[in-house]
Amino acid sequence: MIRFGPNRGVNSLGAIVIRAVISGVVTGTLLAGCGVGSKQTELAQELANLTRDARGRVDPLPQMAPYEPPEYGARDLTDPFSEKRITESNRVESAASATGATLLAAQKGRPRQPLEAFPLESLRLVGSVSIKGQPYALIRLDQSIYRVKVGDYMGQNMGRVVAISADEVSLRELVQDGAGAWSERDATMTLQDTEGSRR
Question: What class does CATH assign to 112-190?
């Protein structure tokens, strides 16, 4: 026979009973939640109803025309990398370089004129006069007026005056490009233009 102390056995036995009841309730709840209940049955039916008409329909592929490569139209043109093209390009560059060298050599032997020390943009055409049938352009530099005739030079690019009219002076300058070749370029000063302009 087991002897219990006062209230000790009753409390232990009550605790065991309470634990057993709680375990049973929790186990029953878990089993009820994991089992197939009415809500799960309804969910499965709803899912079946929704997916019954959900079969997709794929449109057939469009008919594609067979590929026809375009006709190459540059077959008869000169190949830019051909030996003939490179030789021709070198010949043209050599001729231009020789012409530029000749122009530069002609410029080196002549004395410089006063207006060649200033950029063309700093010179201003303020009028023109004719003396004994010879046209002269009146060019202002700061507070001074200079008289220029055809054949005179002005600007820092060896600009030679080639024509003078009542409201315009035309020049031909000698300029060097990025490759070092010299070539001629036309420039114009107009009476309306206060700074001078190149065209």
Answer: mainly beta
Cβ(159)–Cβ(175) below 8 Å: no
For residue 122, how many other CB atoms are within 10 A of its CB? 15
- Specify the pairing of strand 124-131 against strand 159-164: unpaired
Does this model's pTM top 0.70? My answer is: no
Q: Taking a C-beta distance cutoff of 8 angstroms, is the pair 144, 115 a contact?
A: no
Q: Closest Cα to residue 190, out of 177, 199, 182?
A: 199
For residue 97, count other CB atoms closer than 10 A to its CB.
15
Instruction: Report in angstroms the alpha-carbon separations of 79 from 75, 76, 94, 109, 188.
Output: 9, 9, 21, 43, 39
**Sign for the pseudo-dihedral over CA of 144, 169, 104, 175:** positive
Per DSSP, the three-state class of 17 is: helix
CB 138 within 8 A of CB 145: yes
Q: What is d(CA 117, CA 128) in angstroms, rounded to the nearest whole number?
A: 22
- Give per-residue pLDDT as tens, 54-106: 667 788 888 988 988 888 877 777 777 777 777 776 666 666 666 666 777 77
